[in-house]
Design a protein that fits this description.
Length: 476
């Protein structure tokens, strides 16, 4: 018997559970959140609180709204995604050109001229990707990453010693390693001269009774930048660029590269770089996890394991891994993936943990749990405390995560984009109701939102029940 016509294969596998409006809604969330942390460097401000609410609301809608494959709605969603991302890019470059990109800059005789020249070049390259036939094609995003590296190098050179404890913690840890001392068994200098930023009893004779407070993977990645570039922030700069490249290549289509550029040039990107925050590694590994889910599923456990090992709170995302397993036995497959990921995380974590388990747990968990309530945090708790004079309980952030996780598992699409959207929404809820939440916390979420947009494969026109009949519009 002669077989009938076979379906034409596309470069992107069908995603029958994808949400039509996920792209435009998450695009609005990414741009709004980038604006929120731009307003006051990621601290509480009336405008930033409003924008945080917009980002949280649109992320929630992206997860909750029902599936629809109506032709007109699909076309509108695709156009709206590019429109929102394009308008967001215009606003972001205006902010980068009209406000200081960092806090402790010493610019020299030429002032900001080198930086502004690079921003102008980046704006031209980014704008070239918004047309129907993007100029430079696949070379555009690598060129933009190159411009970002040059600008980031200028930032690092112009701010060689930022006055922030994160930078000091790293320098002290590298010095300890150089002497063969466990960096989790030392104490740190209190560069601020007060204990307002630390928990009670942590400061003694001008020293913080805590060692390196970040996971070993973060120390190893930062150490590579310290050894090869003379400043660990060069590793952060490379991580930013790699994350953008992974976001841009998640799926074929025009909006993935644009989403990557929105992340790469979110207005506080160079501020995050200057401050030396380690959340850039979380952003990279989140982008890598989504990229693997789209392009190399066998490597998902490795990417997830490194993601879980990059920050102590990332284990909260473990239940959402079920969204990457849409098959008939999702929880069984999820358990297998999580066990492999746990093995990867253990390989990079245990060698440091076993040296001094008590000090290790104190540095990574005890120190964080003892951190004080911050009235300047970009969170609803700090806003409530200011408005009412009553400080809400600090455990509230963990309490609201549970319903957020349940909602995502129930309603989020069983796709890479759905997984990233669920992670973004969950951590937006977590940080928005936490005792501490600042620019670096939300920077990782901007990367996650852009990863979700890049992985998005909307139902194609003509599919009334939401079934996918083709991949996304071909792009560069």
């Amino acid at each position: 018997m002669t077989p009938g016509p076979q379906p034409v294969e596309t470069s992107t596998p069908p995603a029958p559970d994808e949400r039509t409006l996920l792209g435009p809604l998450l695009s609005l969330a990414a741009v709004a959140l980038g604006h929120a942390i731009q307003v006051s460097n990621g601290t509480r401000h009336p405008t930033s609180m409003t924008l945080l609410s917009v980002a949280l609301g649109t992320s929630l809608l992206a997860v909750l709204l029902p599936l629809s494959g109506q032709a007109r709605l699909v076309r509108m969603a695709e156009r709206a995604t590019l429109l929102v991302l394009g308008v967001g890019l215009v606003w972001q470059f205006i902010q980068l050109a009209t406000s200081s990109p960092a806090m402790y800059l010493r610019t020299g005789p030429r002032g900001f001229a080198p930086f502004l020249g690079g921003i102008a070049m980046a704006a031209v390259l980014a704008g070239a990707g918004l047309g129907g036939q993007p100029w430079l094609g696949k070379l555009r995003v690598p060129l933009l990453v190159g411009v970002h590296v040059v600008l980031g190098t200028w930032i690092i050179r112009a701010s060689p010693h930022p006055h922030i404890d994160v930078y000091t913690f790293h320098i002290e840890a590298f010095q300890a390693l150089g002497k063969g001392i466990n960096p989790y068994a030392i104490t740190m200098p209190n560069i601020y001269g007060h204990d307002l930023f630390y928990g009670p009893g942590l400061t003694e004779n001008g020293r913080l009774q805590v060692g390196f407070p970040y996971p070993p993977l973060s120390l190893l990645l930062a150490g590579a930048g310290h050894l090869l570039g003379g400043d660990y922030r060069f590793a952060n700069l490379v991580a930013m660029g790699l994350a953008a490249l992974m976001i841009a290549t998640c799926r074929p289509g025009q909006w993935a590269p644009v989403a990557a550029v929105v992340f790469l040039f979110t207005p506080r990107t160079f501020f995050v770089l200057e401050q030396g925050w380690t959340d850039v590694y979380v952003a990279l590994l989140m982008a890598a996890t989504v990229w693997c889910a789209c392009r190399a599923p066998r490597w998902i456990p490795v990417a997830l394991g490194l993601l879980f090992a990059s920050k102590h709170y990332m284990e909260l995302a473990a239940p959402l891994v079920v969204l990457l397993h849409p098959g008939p036995r999702p929880w069984r497959d999820t358990l297998r993936t999580l066990l492999k990921a746990a093995a990867v995380a253990a390989v990079v974590t245990l060698p440091f943990a076993v040296l001094d388990p008590k000090a290790f747990v104190h540095d990574l968990l005890g120190f964080q749990l003892r951190q004080p309530f911050r009235m300047d945090a970009l969170s609803y708790l700090s806003w409530w405390a200011k408005e009412t004079g009553v400080q809400p309980p600090s455990w509230l952030g963990f309490a609201v995560v549970l319903p957020a996780l349940g909602l995502c598992i129930w309603r989020a699409p069983r796709t890479p984009a759905g997984f990233a959207a669920a992670v973004a929404m969950t951590f937006l809820v977590f940080f928005a109701f936490s005792k501490q939440a600042f620019c670096n916390y939300y920077y990782f979420i901007v990367a996650t939102l852009c990863s979700a947009i890049a992985a998005w494969t909307p139902p194609r026109a003509g599919s009334s029940d939401g079934a996918v009949t083709a991949g996304p519009v071909d792009g560069p």
